[in-house]
Specification:
The protein is an alpha+beta fold. The protein is about 30% helix and about 25% strand. The chain is globular and about 35 Å long.
């Protein structure tokens, strides 16, 4: 009986190790999309495509997208969190510099450039108050301050965009309606579980 329990014990031990691993995302930009290999989400790359629009115009533009053969939606707060957390930035976000955010700024196309600063900013599906939506922005400082980035807006509700403003250069964070792909650790765990079950059955017979 004890011998039969050994494979199951090993499986549970391996599962514990895998589940406690921190996996950092690799963001890959291709054909107008950015793929997050941890969450399995596809993001629309060019934030500029949704600037100079009201909220309703942004939503209409997003609903008509067919990039990559997907339908698309305005990112939720959870999806925004996953994008930032998966590259190694830990909540809460704010005025602390985050070198890890370079993965995001390297992958996406910014909405504004001014005085040597790059601004990657867009609304997401989170109401900031009556007639407004929250904004998530990554501010990339000039080249002489490389690896110096600020993230504001997400979960802080400190910066919002009026839904009726059609002159702003604030874009939108947009995600494909595609089923997330399991992360490698999950697939490895599944494989170990199957092998363990096979081992247990062989011992029975």
């Amino acid at each position: 009986m004890i011998r039969k329990m050994v494979p199951l014990t090993l499986i549970l031990f391996a599962a514990g190790l895998l589940m406690t691993q921190t996996v950092s995302a690799s963001l890959t930009a291709n054909n107008g999309m950015v793929y997050d290999d941890v969450s399995g989400l596809y993001w629309y790359q060019n934030l500029n495509d949704f600037s100079q629009m009201t909220y309703s115009q942004k939503i209409s533009e997003i609903s008509g997208l067919t990039t990559g053969g997907f339908s698309w939606h305005l990112a939720t707060e959870d999806e925004m969190d996953s994008l930032i957390d998966n590259v190694g930035v830990q909540y809460p976000y704010g005025s602390t510099p985050y070198p890890e955010a370079s993965q995001i700024t390297d992958a996406f196309i910014h909405t504004r450039f001014a005085s040597g600063y790059y601004f990657y900013m867009g609304i997401y599906e989170s109401i900031g108050g009556t007639g407004t939506h929250n904004i998530m922005e990554i501010q990339k400082l000039p080249a002489n301050s490389d690896n110096f980035y600020f993230i504001t807006g997400i979960n802080l509700s400190q910066w919002t965009a009026p839904d009726g403003n059609s002159t702003s250069d604030i874009g939108a964070w947009v995600v494909a309606d595609a089923a997330p792909v399991p992360v490698p650790a999950t697939m490895t765990l599944f494989g170990i579980g199957l092998l363990g079950l096979v081992g247990v059955n062989r011992r029975k017979y």
